[in-house]
Amino acid sequence: MKRLEEMLEGSPYVAYLYGYPHKTAYRPFAPALSLESVWAEERRDALFLYFHVPFCEMRCGFCNLFTAAGPKQDVVDGYLAALERETRRVKEALGTASFARLAVGGGTPTLLDVAGLHRVFDLAEDVLGADPHHIPVSVEVSPETVDAEKLRVLRARGTDRVSMGVQSFIEAEVAAVKRPQKTAQVESALDLIRSTGFPTLNLDLIYGMEGQTVESFLFSLRAALRFSPEEVYLYPLYVRPLTFLGKKSRAWDDLRLSLYRAGREFLLSEGYTQVSMRMFRARHAPDASGPVYRCQEDGMVGLGCGARSYTGRVHYSSEYAVGSREVRSIIASYSERTSESFGEVGYGFRLSGEERRRRHMLLSLLADGVDFAAYRERFCSDVLEDFPELLELEAHGLARREGVGLVLTAAGVERSDLIGPWLHSEGVRALSEEYAWR
Fold this sequence. Notes:
The chain is of the alpha/beta class. The protein has 18 helices and 18 strands.
């Protein structure tokens, strides 16, 4: 493990940890595992259900998500047919299951037409038995693909949260990241969303774009707050392999840190609460409702090409790619799969006992903090003995004891994208470093 002192001397922007391990640590299973065996020992009373729509109108210059731009309708239709085959086969393997959350992401789900959106929700309700009207439901949208009819469908089917990646309200800034977005179209879409009555609106903004200043970033934040979003996410711009910006090989400066601090101070002054490095929640945001879901403990059923599924011992997905040719090839192969083939799990990561403990520790630390008693109850060991490196965070003022656990300080939250990668296991780090980007 690299010394924390060394890493703290460099950039605080190493990598965004939204799951552990990252898909770059996944490898083919030989032989493939049966779907039934993967889920055999998993609790099924509070699962997260996720549908992936791997299509967008365009690919932004910073995007490394699994998505294809501008698909023809026959490609979309073929994909949805395969999604139905996969969903039905997964239902066979799961048997009786209850879902605590539902999300539809991508890509851009609202690239689907009204019939396509209904089809996805029909799979969730009629095939898997999820109840979108009694659990939190989130759908990602874009200014270019939403309209009044699609929004009415989403609301009628139980969606209570929509998330839009605005990135910036200044056209020159989004143009610099290869996103030809018109501010007037964004504002029109936000007016439609608000008039449709979704309880939670989330807006994503990016800091670190070419030409961006503290003043221009605050301009975008003020523009966003005109629509009273219940949630705001602030994302630092990363230059990733095979993206448009990554191919430019341009060194990104650390103006990002001053932009983050300015954005954080502004949102706090406006009554928002910081939940994580990226997430800020408004005072008027509705209280969390529905069954309790904890990502450290409960499983995830990911459906669709590019979606990830989590059980306690196995994480799996389709293969991962960023390059447009490779993405389209993977989608075409997925669309040709038979119901029988969806009963096999061929690509993913087996979690050892140490990796299960590390995942719990990491996801807890970067969210609400590590609860010592909850960790001991789950793993019958002491988290500080299992991971003594946590004491280094405390020694550097990046974490503190609070109540019966360890939480990140403000300085620690600011360096979440350094702390997460620093706490990766040597095995996961080695797999990710040898991953061949394509």
